[in-house]
Amino acid sequence: MFEKILIANRGEIALRIHRACREMGIATVAVHSTADADAMHVRLADESVCIGPPSARESYLNIPAILTAATITGADAIHPGIGFMAENAQFAEMVEEHGFTWIGPTPEHIRIMGDKVTAKQTVVGLGLPTVPGSDGPVGSLEEAVEIGQRFGFPLLIKAAAGGGGKGMKVAQDVDGLREAYQLARGEARAAFGNDQVYIERYLARPRHIEVQLLGDAHGNVVHFGERDCSLQRRHQKVLEEAPSPGLNATQRERVGSLAAETARRLGYRSAGTMEFLYEDGEFYFIEMNTRLQVEHTISEMITGIDLVREQIRIATGAPLGYGQKDIRFEGHSIQCRLNAESSVTFMPSPGRIEGYHAPGGLGVRIDSALYDGYRIPSNYDSLIAKLIVHGSTRNEALMRLRRALEEYVIGGVETTLPLHQRIIAESDFLNGDYDIRWLERFIARTTG
Ligand code: MV4
Prior knowledge:
Largest sheet: 8 strands, antiparallel
Distance between the termini: 55 Å
Low-confidence stretches: none
Structural class: alpha+beta
Mean pLDDT: 97
Helix content: 25-40%
Strand content: 25-35%
Strand order of the largest sheet: 13-12-9-10-11-14-19-17
CATH superfamily of the largest domain: ATP-grasp fold, B domain
CATH class of the largest domain: Alpha Beta
Number of strands: 20
Number of domains: 3
CATH architecture of the largest domain: 2-Layer Sandwich
Bound molecules: ligand MV4
Number of helices: 15
CATH topology of the largest domain: D-amino Acid Aminotransferase, Chain A, domain 1
């Protein structure tokens, strides 16, 4: 087992990883920017190293500084957390070249899934259903028009280097396609330095269903069920739940085993997530995330398994030690992401926390690095806390969520807490009747 892990991240996820390390008797090294000198992830870690100025590019993305911090502290392994270095294949390689263990998937798997065209071609080859469309990159306008004639409209043009919704353009007809094709390529070139695009049939009202996976270095893969992440605003997830209220037991079993079987054929190692769109009873793979995710928590709540501990064990070469049949699914879990931003305009609201009371009690979990007096820097993501509830049924989880949201006090900054209160009062949400369009429509309808 590792004796010391460097956590190359900040905020709630750095704390989350620290907690798993602490339970396993592993010492932790925090890295931080000058803006985070007083951060909770630095306070709790056994050691800390300042790796640069506030700008993420010069600190949390600063490869030489992170590797130097690992060297001088004598860390055995590096956990990248979420974002920053987590899906950087070159960094994963450098970590290993410098003699540290990378707690994550192989650089090869990170690379394959980082290119959405290669990812799609790879999983199609392994038998996963995907959205009908181009078989690969679409290199010319003529080719795009030919696909339009073959598949019909509406179509969606996506950037190969995209993901997370960046660089997508909808086309309603051939004229729209000509325009969207050029626009999409231009935007992709500007955003990613790669103007490769591909085309899919546009699904109008799907749900976003993703499956949590874990693979070990011995070819074993298990899944931890699905999460419904349809409630998003501008491609940022807002509220997630597991299991999905939109699937029955047969559909649930189908998407779970499809994902696990594909990951097994890939030889996938570590934590990963396969994302699907679900419409009219069909699942379509869209992307795979080769990292831990912010919403891994709700899969932990319904299975009782610590996914970060498992990631660490797997990185040592240990086998999973259990199979799919050993994973027991119990109850329902919901996560609300609390951001330091206005719940009406969504403008960021950094500043000092004045007055902090976190809810607790049965079935309530808070993953947050907040404390009273903490100053939220303006340099990073606005996620400040995750409120996670668990209940034996969806109704029990909702009952606890309503109570916990009422109890939560985060003073001094604006947060999205009121948005969550409004969402969970809606009958569509209570009925589990929503898709990827629902939240933006709800916000438009209720805030004008
Ligand atoms: C789609 C789609 C409709 N049809 N693909 C958005 C982010 C990226 N991961 C994939 N995305 C979508 N791909 C086809 N063929 C609609 C979306 C989409 C979306 C997906 C999941 C959750 C929220 C979303 C919001 C807008 C668009």
